[in-house]
Protein: GabR family transcription regulator
Organism: Halobacillus halophilus
Amino acid sequence: MFFHIEKGAEQPAIYKQIYTHLRDLILDDQLSKKKLPSKRKLAQDLEVSLNSVAHAYEQLLAEGYIYSAERKGYFVEDITRYIKRDEEDVPFPEELKEERMNDRFQPEATFSHIATDAEHFPFKKWRKYQQKVMEHHRTQLALLPHPQGPYELRESIATMIALTRGVRTRPEQIVIGSGTQPLIHKLMSLQAKDTQVAVENPGYQRFYHLLKNMGFPVSPVGLDHQGISIQEIRESDPQWVFVTPSHQFPTGTIMPINRRIELLNWAAESPGRYIVEDDYDSEFKYGTDHIPSLQSLDQNQQVIYTGTFSKTLLPSLRISYMVLPPNLLKSYRNAFGDWIDGPSGLNLWTLKYFIDEGEYGRHVKRMNAYYKAKRATLIRELRQTFQDRITIHNIPAGLHFLVDMDTSLSYSEIEERAKDNKIILYTIRRFFLQDYEMTEKGKKKLVIGFANMEDDKVRESVRRLASLFS
Amino acid sequence: MFFHIEKGAEQPAIYKQIYTHLRDLILDDQLSKKKLPSKRKLAQDLEVSLNSVAHAYEQLLAEGYIYSAERKGYFVEDITRYIKRDEEDVPFPEELKEERMNDRFQPEATFSHIATDAEHFPFKKWRKYQQKVMEHHRTQLALLPHPQGPYELRESIATMIALTRGVRTRPEQIVIGSGTQPLIHKLMSLQAKDTQVAVENPGYQRFYHLLKNMGFPVSPVGLDHQGISIQEIRESDPQWVFVTPSHQFPTGTIMPINRRIELLNWAAESPGRYIVEDDYDSEFKYGTDHIPSLQSLDQNQQVIYTGTFSKTLLPSLRISYMVLPPNLLKSYRNAFGDWIDGPSGLNLWTLKYFIDEGEYGRHVKRMNAYYKAKRATLIRELRQTFQDRITIHNIPAGLHFLVDMDTSLSYSEIEERAKDNKIILYTIRRFFLQDYEMTEKGKKKLVIGFANMEDDKVRESVRRLASLFS
């Protein structure tokens, strides 16, 4: 054996050195004898303990480098040599490299419609209910969560959305997931690939891209002042329509009852038609009550309702749900009944108590008041700053609104300037899907989100926004 | 107006009653006049406050039941009538109904290989690091998590699996998800639908069903005492092979180095071949060190490594990850770069500190010692109880082992008896994929999981197991 053991505290453990040396010799086919020395012999030669050699041999044995023959000793396996295709190591591609968070973009101002307010999240209450789960639900925590989420949480959600959104559902019909995107992905993966799909234009680009990527023929359908155009739906003749009737994304339109009935009646004409109602931020209404969901008006079980806790709690929590009509639930269970993903049981059980104990309702109510005030300040500041250069689509709902800005800048120029000035700002361009003729003339539409804006930075944010257009 | 307002604390709010009455009259087309009375007039007629009427009108206006014309008053919209296809409501299908958890199956004994031990989970430490996240990472919590998981956690995982599993990866290559199932689903959705896939047989049935459901041609490939058969792989000629080399699921075989190299060399013959190494429970080794992963031996970037925190922490936590070679990472990012799902940011950031502060390593070490002792007790009890009727495949790794039971019962009979006696027990039948000729002669193979068995119930569990075979 031609190797030397380094002793000392800073050296690898002796057994590890023996293991490594022997392994490398075996892999390089440098052991002339197939039989290894006995443990005792090697221990003497290397001047180490028998124990160290025994440990090294055990590891080599476990990994299959050597084998033992009873009363004969240890023998080296006949090890195949590695094939390496390329002579040189391929370096990691530059374009796939990332930066650490700390080195990343820190905005000077944010008008994001995605991020919310974490400062007002009741972390203490959350921890309190989580503590309860940790104490009383260890059995559940040690198991896989139910593929649709715990039944008990689905009961709480069913009761809650019945009260606030008129949604008629049994707990069985609710599927909880890590986002509406993966839920819709699973649901749609069960539909024939030639299923015609219609989405709002402008609209939620993530659903659009998802459906396109899944291979469906997707028609972007235009909007009027009441929401999605029924006439255009009839022209593109889809089987599935994706809508945001409570607060159209991104225009903010609240679909009136008449358009809702027309849309439901369109679906009622054929049992193979479905409407996906994405109720992403309906919890926030400033001035009126909650408006009943499309699902609550549906007479024929053709509406799939989706809701999320991303807006009311935290986007990083990743808890959303969909409510399936019974026939879709059946095929969903057949396909995904043994599917294990979705949010952590710890968070789901915590959410159950959070809802049941009234904390969720109180939080939403508090946030409504808080966002209402911040929104009012923001609108006032925008009006004062931009005067008649701005038109605010002041629909009192949700966590964002549209404005028309009188500017000679193009959409690209606005977006570039925002980027250069470290301002997170989305124009409506992001939400126009294919085929849309976007005029560069006249006023430019901006999406103004206010949830993630710190309340003492409203004035400053508007000032920074103004600097883009000066 | 032909309706009456009920006053009293137990009645709905007055504005709500006015709203509901008017809405129902409008929907039933029972308002003879299209013009509503003025707010003042209606308030007088109903003997309620002007405010209540105003509130009701606002809500009807917001929902689109009425419209207002300046200086003329409020008018009823022309509302389309609902189409209802079926005369009668369809009852919810019996077969889709569920029971509440409390009414569900409570096992008398469990040999589940899925559930783990939640009693020894360091909830206090978890809360401590979570508290840190709640205090110092509010910015991150208010945002969507990175589609691959926070870079900082990926750094921690990269370092950890480099040390324990020899995995060579940059943080960029790690994709964190809610389970290996959804991760593999996304990865495979990018491969051509005629991609030949091979899986171990017996093997992890969830991957098998997933791949079959996705439409891939899947070949179950047999095992010998070293793991998956290279000869059978060559015969079925797949492009992708799914294996569990650290601790074959469910047989427990640890793939020796020679077979590993043969498998890697098979892949190296063509750049379009990939090996998915599911390293689902490699953290648990009783007696030997961790065995280096297949990925660590790969010379050609053709191994996809998947790991999970389901076994070491809690299955209900739903945190797993995969390590992608750069070329697969590229196509993954193109397809899923704007995909939002995966675990909650709160849990991911907590996990980062849990790992970085050494708590994860200490927990795994403690659980190794704990499981080792429980496993030894269980094996002793099994031997004492079943004597020479049982052969234990005593491979000192993981959270389950196989036993051969000498019994005249068939697999179906064993499973039925277990069910009747409220014992969670899986036989190997569950993990045999299609085309497998399972002999009902000779000994029956049982999968004995011990992680979820309470340590003071080992003897009783074995006694209950014995009662099945008496």
Chain B has three domains: 1-92, 109-116+362-468, 123-357. The mean pLDDT of chain B is 92.
